[in-house]
Design goal:
Chain B: Belongs to the heme-copper respiratory oxidase family. The complex is a heterodimer of chains A (240) and B (590). Chain A has eight helices and two strands; from the N terminus they run αααββααααα. Chain A has 240 residues and is mainly alpha-helical. In chain B, a hairpin with a 2-residue loop joins strand 1 and strand 2. Classes of the chains: A mainly alpha (240), B mainly alpha (590). The complex binds protoporphyrin IX containing FE and copper (II) ion. Copper (II) ion (CU) binds next to helix 7 of chain B.
């Protein structure tokens, strides 16, 4: 029992399972989540809080979509690309979504290699994830540029309700900011793995906490969350 | 009875989490200024909160000058009056109460009371304070900005909040307010995550959730609530900032101002109200739950009796926390919402009264036949109970739609919420400071100044807010700098208003005595020793007082019992500390 480590990677003592186990954990001392480290638990609670932020944004968007007096522009024509002489609805968003979902896959693989302590492959897949994330942001920038050139502004657009542009820029912008921060942190984590800081437990410059491969997993939690949020934005903004 | 039977030390489970090395400060700067020690951060938080709270106090004097003696002070224009109420309300609720309970008491007490060495992520905790300070600076800056601070009322309702008719509406005021709130939320989130995880994952050996002092339960639940309630305010602030700066129309319908059609249109002002009150109502409990918790501990300690119904108290806190997310629209009865909606929210509102009443009964039953010491913390705790019951009863009135509709936006509402979320939590803050000051500084606060402070504050608060109920009942509206001819009132209110104002100055003066006491006792207070109140909780059992960085010296304490073993028959003393294995002999550490 004593060898359970801070990061939760170590051996875990046998505990009752199911509801009984849950009750036992919450009735116990020291920790309620027996297999979660501090960092992981903190990321989970942060993501819960962030879920509320995104939910409020989406609910607000739905409310203004109902309250506005002008017609809502038709997403499938607004978000169409003119390729090879035909307007293909939602094609860019489809690709963006595909890219982001794929990045969740590469992130999961990176976490797996981190568990196995294989440094090179972890770095490779972290970088791949970062590249996919950056691609997503790049395509979003392209989409913004296209819409802006067509006259969409936060305060109005050529096709109808001004709230369309407002909600669009606000929500995709907020999500894109999340992705951008994710990419930055992916690069930092990749650099730390590459330099072997998680093997040696090098202390963080600011936090003075020893590095640990678990950081890769915590990074992954954030990344999957950002992905999941995108699915909702996609469904509510582009498909409705 | 919970865990009252002492366990033998053999029952204390082995350590699951190895000790984490704390950050070692290398200079004066990192020890006292950019400190990562939760106790220093706590004092920074509390000091900043009190400083900005003084601004809000002065603003309340200015408002009372105007209300008590209308027409006498030229410099208080109607615009200035709106700015005063707005800044007063917002500072009191967010920058003083929320910050001092969670950032101040949370930081100081959580690690000590659960037997941790510090918060789980001290660096993030430190950032939390500095972002909070930035938020306060931005807020204070709006006093000096062109156009002055916003006068939109602390609820910041659009569309008026960003129109030119409102002070600061098309100047800097509203922008700085929104930016400051956004910063506050970011800073709070960093600290709040720390408080939550320290309680869930950072307790010492033997400290189960159901052995935690109620103070920790109150602060913990309030923090969880804040992490889920502040997002709504965050979103509302971001959207209003866009409405103001980019000309979006999230909250803005089509409007004619000064005969000119504005470029807004199609937005929903009611949406803002929903977002604001989805935050705003939980906010009431975010400041009330820590107060509930602290008061439970003060009463138990100073009546030398275990808290009555500990388990019920914990569940009441949790249930109040959960329910308070489904009552928000009781602030919107007059917004024109559907009557069925009002019916639903009135019902949930009245249901909350049940767990709340349970808590009040349990406090009274704790006092029942206790060995009551009328120390300063006890006096403040008793005053809190009375005041809270008072405010709670008028809350039951206002929770009913038919009663609220005529009373809404009168001084009755102002009197109600000052009782329940102004005076009551402030009394607890005072009680808590008198209680924990000896641990923080090693010296007692001066008793005579304290008695003066207590009696003037307590009686004075009633002199202010009791008549205010009456003033509201006869129809004086809230947020009016003056009501002009009183002919339409059933009774003259001018004399009462003057009386209230004088009482407000007297109460304000008593707070200066309190602040002086805080400074004076630092040097001249009586030496306190490590456990002057003979209390059971862990913070009183630290090897040195004030506790050093890391709190516990070599070994973290082992916990054998709940926090309320007072006057246990047969025990050598009238309290048994949580880390006392009585009747076993102390464990030899494995
Ligand atoms: C010395 C003690 C205090 C005095 C004399 C005082 C006085 C006042 C007055 C005169 C108003 C304006 C009423 C109106 O015209 O509508 C007001 C509003 C308000 N006060 Fe206080 N107050 C005090 C303490 C507090 C505290 C501790 C809180 C903390 C919750 C608080 C929260 C508020 C709020 C939220 C408003 C509403 C502002 C608005 O209408 O936008 N006050 N207070
Ligand atoms: Cu409420």
């Amino acid at each position: 029992m004593g060898e359970t480590t801070l990061n939760g990677f170590g051996a875990k003592p046998a505990r009752p399972s199911g509801l009984r186990g849950l009750a036992a954990d919450w009735a116990s001392d020291q920790r309620a989540f027996k297999s979660a480290s501090w960092g992981k638990a903190m990321m989970w609670i942060f993501l819960l809080s962030d879920t509320f932020v995104f939910s409020c944004f989406l609910l607000a968007y739905m409310t203004v979509r109902m309250s506005t007096t002008l017609a809502w522009p038709d997403p499938s024509s607004v978000f169409a690309l003119h390729i090879g002489g035909a307007d293909i609805p939602l094609i860019l968003i489809a690709i963006m979504t595909f890219v982001l979902i794929s990045s969740s896959g590469t992130m999961a693989i990176a976490v797996n290699f981190a568990y196995r302590r294989s440094r090179g492959l972890t770095v490779l897949f972290l970088l791949l994830t970062a590249v996919l994330g950056a691609t997503f942001v790049g395509m979003q920038a392209f989409e913004w540029t296209k819409l802006i050139s067509e006259g969409v502004r936060p305060w109005g657009n050529p096709w109808g309700a001004p709230q369309f542009g407002a909600a669009f820029f606000m929500i995709t912008g907020f999500h894109g900011t999340h992705v951008t921060f994710g990419v930055i942190f992916l690069l930092i984590v990749a650099a730390k793995v590459w330099r072997g800081e998680y093997d040696r437990g090098t202390k963080g410059f600011f936090t003075s906490r020893p590095g640990d491969y678990e950081h890769v997993e915590i990074m992954g939690l954030y990344w999957h969350f950002v992905d999941l949020v995108w699915v909702f934005i996609f469904a509510f903004f582009y498909l409705w | 009875m919970v865990d009252a039977t002492p366990r033998s030390h053999r029952d204390v489970p082995p350590a699951e989490v190895p000790e984490v090395e704390l950050y070692h400060p290398r200079s004066w700067w990192t020890t006292y200024v950019f400190s990562q020690d939760a106790k220093v951060i706590a004092i920074q938080y509390a000091g900043t909160a009190i400083a900005i709270g003084l601004v809000a106090l002065v603003l309340s004097w200015l408002m009372r000058l105007q209300l008590g003696f209308p027409g006498t002070f030229d410099f208080i224009t109607p615009e200035a009056y709106y700015q005063f109420i707005t800044m007063h309300g917002m500072i009191m609720v967010i920058y003083l109460l929320t910050a001092i309970f969670l950032g101040g008491f949370g930081n100081y007490l959580i690690p000590l009371m659960v037997g941790a060495r510090d918060m789980v992520f001290p660096y993030v905790n430190m950032l939390s304070y500095w972002v909070y300070l930035l938020a306060v600076v931005v807020l204070a800056a709006s006093f000096f900005a062109p156009g002055g601070p916003t006068g939109a009322g602390w609820t910041l309702y659009p569309p008026q909040a960003i129109l030119s008719g409102t002070p600061g509406g098309n100047d800097w005021g509203i922008i700085l307010m929104l930016v400051s709130l956004i910063l506050f939320i970011i800073g709070f989130t960093m600290g709040g995550l720390n408080y939550v995880i320290t309680v869930i994952q950072g307790r010492t050996r033997g400290m189960t959730l159901m052995r935690m002092p109620l103070t920790v339960w109150g602060i913990f639940t309030a923090t969880v609530m804040a992490l889920f309630a502040f997002p709504a305010l965050f979103v509302a602030c971001v959207m209003m900032l866009f409405d103001r700066l980019l000309g979006t129309s999230f909250f803005m319908p089509a409007l004619v101002e000064m005969g000119e059609l504005l470029r807004y249109g199609g937005g929903s002002p009611i949406l803002f109200q929903h977002l604001f009150w989805f935050f705003g109502h939980p906010e009431v409990y975010i400041v009330a739950l820590p107060a509930f918790g602290i008061v439970s501990d003060l009463i138990s300690t100073h009546a030398r009796k275990n808290i009555f119904g500990y388990r019920m108290m914990v569940w009441a806190i949790v249930i109040i926390g959960a329910l308070s997310f489904v009552v928000w629209a009781h602030h919107m009865y007059v917004s024109g919402m559907h009557p069925w909606f009002g019916f639903f929210f009135a019902t949930t509102t009245l249901i909350i009264a049940v767990p709340t009443a349970i808590k009040v009964y349990n406090w009274v039953l704790t006092l029942w036949r206790g060995d009551i010491h009328l120390t300063l913390p006890m006096l403040f705790a008793l005053a809190f109970i009375v005041t809270f019951v008072n405010g709670g009863l008028t809350g039951l009135f206002l929770g009913n739609v038919v009663v609220d509709v005529p009373l809404s936006d009168t001084m009755f509402v102002v009197a109600h919420f000052h009782m329940v979320m102004g005076v009551a939590p402030i009394l607890v803050i005072f009680g808590a400071i008198y209680h924990w000051y000896p641990k923080i500084t090693g010296r007692m606060l001066d008793e005579r100044m304290g008695q003066f402070h207590f009696w003037v504050t307590f009686i004075g608060a009633y002199a202010i807010f009791f008549p205010m109920h009456y003033v509201g009942l006869v129809g004086v509206p809230r947020r009016y700098p003056e009501i002009g001819a009183e002919a339409f009132m059933t009774a003259p209110v001018g004399g009462l208003n003057a009386f209230i104002s004088v009482a407000a100055f007297v109460v304000g003066f008593a707070q200066m005595v309190f602040l002086f006491n805080l400074l004076w006792s630092l040097r001249h207070g009586r030496e306190a020793g490590s456990n002057p109140w003979r209390a059971t909780t862990l913070e009183w059992q630290t090897p040195t007082t004030p506790p050093p960085h890391g709190n516990w010296g070599e070994e973290r304490p082992l916990v054998y019992r709940w926090a309320y073993d007072y006057s246990v028959p047969g025990a050598p003393q009238d309290f048994i500390a949580q880390n006392d294995p009585w009747p076993d002999r102390p464990a030899r550490r494995p």
